[in-house]
Write a structure and sequence with these properties.
alpha+beta, disordered N terminus, six-stranded mixed beta sheet, elongated, six-stranded antiparallel beta sheet, about 15% strand
Length: about 950
């Protein structure tokens, strides 16, 4: 079987069923154009054929080995559809289609002859180079503008066309020779093309479609040349006269020129740009022009800047121009821009502003005055001072920043504001003070205000109006009348031996209430006022004595009531009487003076019946005689201690000698018992007296006598009478202590250390008073009513001594530290410092204020170094002179020179100029070295260029 004739049937997904048509031919017919890329389509099939397979074929002539010709059908691979797009390889061939039915019948169409391709190609054009007629070495030229068509009308597709290229260069007048290896769509001109004679370049393009070929004619030639880039290079070179100067006649023309050159440069290809070796010059010129334009715009906008910001704005323009090097400044033809900026400059050395600085400095200093070696504000009240400070600060704010920093002694302003605030806070504390308040409340508030007042410095204190000082004094004395009334009331209630109130049953409670009231009033007083109350301890004793007496009064009233009650047994009555009598006898003399019913009680002794069972003892008369003697013991005031002791001893012996029956008749034996108890108590007290009497040390004896006095005050009335003789003898014969403290004098001395809220004594005197106080006994210390004054003084002494250490350490080498610490002291503390020391501190303070003028003069000198943006002649000598003056200033004064940076700037600029001068080489010197000098010189700013020319006028 001939394999070439073997057909492989491919299944068709959808069978085409053609209805039977009468008289239809039993063939397959097709439609479509017989050209490449045309589409042929089966249009008609035999009647009743059900086709499920198509195959398209080429009809090809085959020559056998015997040279005979035959025709064979060659199936077209993949062509198994009803429609068939004619491929390129079908050009010039015959094509037919075969349709196969589902029952295996085959039907063929008539062959179609496909037109052969007759190709046509356009002449190629070249692109990718910088100029339309020139190409530079290194540039890459690209073929463009080639179009291939079929004269027979076939519509060719780009992927069906294969191109090949060949580049030529002109050899002779009209001949071209092949460029070896140049067979691509692009061609990069060799760097040495001109040297090799490759000057006029052309290209041909060959196109192949299937088996058909067509070749173009030579393209138009393009000339390899460096003329465009050489021209641009030369034009850029012409922008400079030399390295430090542009070739500028006027700025606008120069700007237009460089923009033109930039446009030409940007039109070049990247390789062509690489041939422009001096493009950096053009690029720098563009940047410099932009910089000058920006500066020009800044000058033009000056009219829109408000007055306050103009100085800073002009300074910025000056600084910007000074940053320009010589090359950049050469764009400023005829120095028009420089002149405009220079004319705008107004150096901060004008007389008006300096004068204002001096005036404000003086105004600040004159806020203070010095009297009696103490500083105080000239305005006498805070409101006037506040207005002055505000006015000064407003005027300072109006100064330019440079001169604002030259204002000195602003610490005085700051301190004045702080003092005003402190005084305002102090005055506000009076809001809590009201005459509607109770005296105690007024005094309490006044104490708080007084504490704040005493913390004010002398300067602050002087700002407080007398009105407030008077209000404070009035409030502090709010309790004076209350103190006087209470002292009067207490005096009317207390006494040495008896209380003078002579109470009765009807007045008793009122006296109790009055005593309680007085104690309550005392407790309501402030500590200072309470210290002025006399006899308060006696009043408290009276309060206790009233309670003790009231109990005895009630016992006596109970007995009296019992004595008037019928049926009460003698024993009960005797018991009641004896109990009340014992209680009464235990009272002190003062307490007994309060028992208003004592006389009635003592006169109403109970009757005692004796049951002798009808037997009278033989010694009854002796017993009754003894009873009479014992009855005398009811009033011991008729006895001395020795008499009573002797009488009781005798009575005791007599009583012991009585028979038991006779003893019953001594019904008042309890009086003997009480008398003997009193004797025992007095003996015990006498021992304390004897101990005190035997003490030879006056101070120690005084303390022991103090103990005796307390013990005596607690003795019952009878014992006080019996002990009085020795007690008074002790007091009358007390050893006189020449060193004993004088409490009254000490109180007076402490009170006198202050006058008008200032100390009138030295630190040593305060310490001496403190020593006196410390030596007092605890009880004596309680009598020092002015101790608070001494305590506050000691605290102030401590502060002042601490300050004096700072003073001694720093007054010579760091007086500002001393002044600062001195300003923090209160007015009272300052008064403890001697006038000479205060004056020295004030002199130091004034001295610091006076040195500010030196700093101001230096500011003016520094400002004078530059006039209208240019350094003055003789700058080097002037700078040295200013430097010497500055270095001699104190650290404080150096801080005042706010334009010090201008001095260092001038010093730095002098060094820069000197460094360039060191490189100088004359015109006829070493060319390389002179080039280095020219480069360094060209980098100088306008300001430094002028300085250089001024200092070295012969160097060009």
């Amino acid at each position: 079987m001939n394999k070439k004739l073997f057909l492989t049937a491919a299944a068709v997904p959808v069978a085409l069923i053609v209805p039977a048509v009468a008289n239809a031919a039993e063939t397959v017919s097709i439609s479509g154009e017989n050209i490449v890329n045309g589409t042929l389509t089966v249009e008609q099939l035999p009647n009743n054929a059900v086709v499920n397979l198509y195959q398209w074929y080429y009809l090809e002539d085959i020559t056998s080995e015997d040279s005979s010709n035959s025709v064979t059908n060659k199936p077209i691979s993949g062509a198994t559809s009803r429609s068939f797009k004619v491929p390129v390889e079908a050009a010039g061939k015959s094509i037919f289609v075969e349709a196969t039915t589902i029952d295996g019948k085959k039907f063929q169409s008539e062959p179609r002859d496909i037109k052969a391709l007759d190709l046509d190609i356009t002449i190629p054009t070249l692109e990718g180079h910088s100029s339309s007629s020139f190409v530079a070495p290194g540039e890459t030229v690209k073929v463009a503008g080639v179009s291939v068509t079929d004269k027979g009308g076939a519509k060719l597709q780009s992927d069906q066309i294969t191109y090949s290229y060949q580049w030529f260069y002109k050899l002779g007048d009209n001949s071209f020779t092949i460029i070896e290896g140049a067979a691509g769509s692009t061609y990069t001109i060799p760097k040495d093309a001109i040297e090799k004679g490759i000057k006029d370049i052309s290209v041909t393009v060959k196109a192949k479609v299937g088996l058909s070929f067509v070749e173009s004619k030579l393209s138009n030639t393009i000339t390899v040349s460096t003329v465009p880039t050489d021209t641009l290079t030369n034009e850029i070179k012409a922008l400079l006269i030399h390295d430090n100067k542009y070739n500028v006649s006027d700025f606008e023309s120069f700007e237009a020129k460089i923009k033109e050159l930039e446009s030409k440069y940007q039109a070049l290809s990247a390789p062509a740009k690489a041939n422009v070796s001096n493009y950096d010059v053009l690029k720098r010129a563009l940047a410099d022009v932009a910089l000058l334009n920006k500066l020009e715009e800044k000058v033009d906008k000056l009219q829109d800047v408000n007055g306050k910001d103009r100085p800073k704005y002009i300074q910025e323009m000056e600084e910007a121009y000074n940053k320009l090097d010589q090359l950049q400044r050469s764009l400023d033809a005829n120095e028009v821009l420089y002149t405009n900026i220079k004319n705008l400059l107004n150096e901060p050395n004008d007389l008006e502003e300096i004068s204002e600085v001096r005036r404000l400095n003086q105004a600040i200093v004159h806020l203070l005055s010095y009297e009696n070696s103490l500083a105080q504000y000239v305005p006498s009240d805070k409101d006037t001072l506040k207005a002055l400070v505000t006015s000064i600060e407003e005027d300072i704010a109006k100064l330019s920043p440079n001169y604002r920093g030259a204002i000195q002694n602003q610490a005085i302003l700051t301190e004045a504001k702080s003092d005003i605030k402190k005084v305002e806070q102090f005055i506000k504390s009076f809001d809590k003070l009201s005459t509607d308040n109770t005296p105690n409340k007024q005094v309490t508030v006044a104490k708080s205000i007084r504490s704040a007042y005493e913390k004010l410095t002398y300067k602050q204190l002087k700002l407080v109006s007398d009105k407030y000082v008077q209000l404070l004094a009035t409030a502090e004395s709010a309790e004076v009348s209350q103190i006087a009334a209470l002292n009067h009331d207490i005096e009317s209630y207390i006494g040495d031996d008896i209380y003078p109130i002579n109470p009765s049953a009807s007045s008793w409670q009122s006296h109790v209430n009055n005593v309680n009231r007085m104690i309550k009033e005392y407790k309501s007083l402030t500590k200072t006022s309470a210290a002025q109350i006399v006899g308060y301890d006696s009043l408290v004793t009276l309060q206790k004595d009233l309670k003790a007496a009231e109990k005895v009064i009630k016992d006596m009233d109970a007995y009296q009531k019992l004595s008037r009650t019928a049926g009460v047994t003698e024993s009960k009555l005797n018991s009641s009487y004896t109990s009340a009598l014992k209680a009464y006898n235990k009272l002190t003399t003062l307490q007994q003076s309060l028992v208003y019913n004592a006389d009635d009680f003592l006169l109403n002794t109970p009757k005692v019946s004796i049951d002798d069972n009808g037997k009278v003892p033989a010694d009854k008369a002796a017993a009754e005689a003894l009873k009479a003697e014992i009855a005398k013991f009811a009033d011991v005031t008729t006895f001395t201690f020795k008499q009573l002791e002797s009488a009781t001893d005798k009575a005791s012996e007599t009583y012991k000698s009585l028979s038991s029956g006779a003893r019953k008749y001594v019904t008042n034996y309890y009086l003997l018992t009480a008398a003997k108890k009193d004797i025992s108590g007095v003996k015990s007290f006498h021992k304390k007296v004897q101990t005190a009497r035997e003490e030879t040390d006056a101070a120690k004896q005084a303390k022991k006598i103090e103990t005796v006095q307390k013990a005596y005050a607690k003795l019952p009335s009878n014992q006080q009478h019996l002990a009085k003789e020795q007690y008074e003898a002790l007091l009358n014969n007390q050893i006189i202590d020449e060193n004993a403290p004088n409490i009254t004098q000490l109180n007076h001395d402490i009170a006198s250390i202050l006058a008008n809220d200032l100390y009138t004594v030295s630190i040593d005197r305060i310490k001496n008073l403190s020593t006196q106080y410390s030596s007092l006994s605890s009880s004596d210390k309680k009598l020092i009513t002015n101790y608070d004054i001494l305590k506050a003084a000691l605290a102030d002494v401590k502060k002042v001594e601490s300050f004096m250490k700072t003073y001694e350490k720093s007054i010579n080498n760091n007086p500002s530290t001393v002044i600062k610490a001195f300003e923090k002291l209160t007015s009272k503390q300052v008064s403890l410092i001697d006038a000479a020391t205060r004056q020295l501190i004030i002199d130091k303070q004034k001295g610091q204020q006076q040195t500010n003028e030196s700093a101001l003069l230096l500011i003016e000198s520094i400002n004078s170094l530059v006039v209208k943006g240019e350094y003055i002649a003789g700058l080097e000598e002037k700078v040295k002179e200013i430097r010497a003056i500055y270095d001699q200033l104190s650290a404080t004064d150096q801080k005042i020179v706010k334009n010090y940076s201008k001095l260092t700037q001038a010093e730095g600029d002098l060094k820069k100029v000197a460094d360039v001068h060191a490189l100088y080489v004359p015109v006829d010197g070493d060319e390389k070295a002179r080039k280095a000098w020219q480069t360094a010189y060209g980098k100088l700013s306008k300001k430094l260029e002028l300085l250089y020319n001024n200092m070295y006028p012969t160097e060009q």
